[in-house]
Structure formats: structure tokens, C-alpha cells
Amino acid sequence: GNSVTQMEGPVTLSEEAFLTINCTYTATGYPSLFWYVQYPGEGLQLLLKATKADDKGSNKGFEATYRKETTSFHLEKGSVQVSDSAVYFCALWGAKGQNFVFGPGTRLSVLP
Amino acid sequence: SAVISQKPSRDICQRGTSLTIQCQVDSQVTMMFWYRQQPGQSLTLIATANQGSEATYESGFVIDKFPISRPNLTFSTLTVSNMSPEDSSIYLCSVEGSRNEQFFGPGTRLTVL
Question: Which of A76, B8, B77, B109 has fewest C-beta within 10 Å?
């Protein structure tokens, strides 16, 4: 079945540092890929998505590129802020009728 | 994107009691989903709720423990029955967007004593 693997956290960075959170997936066909963010005490918010190979999703300074050859969708940000402290979930959706599959989440803490 | 609200936002309940969580969407949607997020964990799908039909439950979840109602295209409820401390989790509802994404409510934080 479909699955998502993320780098283990927690990740602790200083403000303005570069962020990478690795995500790899296993799926048949061509799934859509997503990053969701969960701020403390809140629900999940869609951060960005990509629906086909080589697509780049971007939002709020975050980027991720759909790499079919490496089955990856790594999240990057050039300069993190304290307000980016949250848990980040990589997810995939295979096809109509299939369920969303979420990775385990990566907790990011950004220190001032 | 859909705007989703949930009630209650949090609750503390006694063992053996039941809690009904409400989910309201600001637009009509065909499918609504209920997830559980145990402390420090990822999301686990409990069931999919379609209007006018029985909910479809995932492996490990049963209707007697988690009855779901879906009376119309903008509303659903999830009941957590005969609660135990192991049911302490965040319960989230979500809906499918027009471009294959999912949108989530703010969650209901349940603590069972």
C-alpha cells in the first residue's frame, strides 16, 4: 500500500537558518503530494501541494518539488522564523476512492 | 477552500461516558472524514461519512465505538462511546476540496480521566 516516510524530529534551528525536512513516499501510479502544518493547539493547514512530477509547490516562503525519480517531496525554506515553529506533515493521495496517507510528522522549533 | 468548525474545541470526560463532536462546513460537500490524532502521533483515519449512507470505517474502528451521523451535506457528528483514557486524542474532521486536497477543522481535544 501507499506510505510516507519523514525525517525524524524534533528539528531545532536558529532564526534565519535554512530548513530542509525530508519526505519520501511509496505509491503506485502518480499520487498528489502535500505538506500540512499544525501550529500549537490548532488543526492542520494545507501548506503546499504538487500534483505531478517536477511540479513545485510553494507558499509562505516554503517550497517542495515533486521528484518522481527519487520518490521525494522535501520541504525547504531559506530563512525560518520563530513563527514557523510547528509540526509538519507530508501526505499523499493516490487516486479517487483512496485515502489520504500522512507521514508521522516532524516537529520544528525555531529559536530566536 | 472550505471553512470548517468543530464543537466542542476541548473537553475533559469521565471514563465510561460518551461525547458527541460536531463538525460544520460552510459549503456542501459529498464526503467528510473523521481522524484521530493520538498524543505526539500522526493522523489515523477513523471513517468516511457520505450523506445518506452508512459511514465506512477503517480497520480497527467500529460503529459501536464511534457512531457517525451525516444528516446533510454540511454537517456531521462523531460520538466517542464508553470512553477510556486510551481515547484521549485530538479528533479532526476534514472535507475534500475541489482539487483533491483535504481541509481540516481545528480539532477537538479530548481528555478522558
Answer: B8
Q: In angstroms, rounded to a whole number, what is the distance separating the alpha carbons of residues A64 and A74?
A: 5
Query: Are B104 and A45 inside 8 Å of each other by CB?
Result: yes
Q: pLDDT tens per residue, chain B (113 residues)?
A: 789 999 999 999 999 999 999 999 999 998 899 999 998 888 999 999 988 888 999 999 999 999 999 999 999 999 999 999 999 999 999 998 877 788 999 999 999 99
**Which residues in chain A have their CB less than 8 angstroms from residue B58's CB?**
99
Q: Does B45 contact A45 at a Cβ distance shorter than 8 Å?
A: no
Encode chain B in three state secondary structure.
CCCEEEECCEEEECCCCCEEEEEEECCCCCEEEEEEECCCCCEEEEEEEECCCCCEECCCCCCCCCCEEEEECCEEEEEECCCCHHHCEEEEEEEECCCCCEEECCCEEEEEC
Q: Tell if the CB–CB gap between B43 and A44 is shorter than 8 Å.
A: yes
Note whether A79 and A17 are within 8 A (CB).
yes
Give the 3-state secondary structure of residue A66: coil
Q: What percent of chain A has pLDDT over 90?
A: 80
Distance separating alpha carbons of residues A16 and B95, to the nearest angstrom: 35
pLDDT in tens, A88-106: 999 999 876 778 899 999 9
User: How many Cα atoms occupy the beta-carbon half-sphere of B76 within 13 Å?
Assistant: 32
